[in-house]
Amino acid sequence: MLISAFLVEDKPDIRQTLVEAMEEMAPLRFVGQADSEATATQWLHAHPGGWDLAIVDLFLAQGTGFGVLLACQTRKLAQKVVVLTSYHQSDLLRRCRELGADEVFDKSQEVDKLVDFCKAHADILAGTISPVP
Q: Under CATH, what is the fold of the domain 3-126?
């Protein structure tokens, strides 16, 4: 099963690299992308059931990923939101969790963990494994 993913990243080169790498390594396809908080929240509100996974950068040129996390708080139980960031201060990570992030990954060192998360989420959505409570 392919996951329908939505990416929020303001840097075009990182966005392109992530899309290419993730679509090659993980069972997903990107159904939408945004480069700002406003564009991301608009897309999410217009497509409430059109995604399985949102990958969100915290610091954007316009707005923040925190606002995107807020917009995702009314998502369906099967929809997951992860933060992919270069900033790993404990207060930022705690705030991400408070706002509903399912996981937080380091852009430079944990893309393989993000891929593993995607594979596990695809298996859960396909019904081949049970979700962890």
A: Rossmann fold (3.40.50)
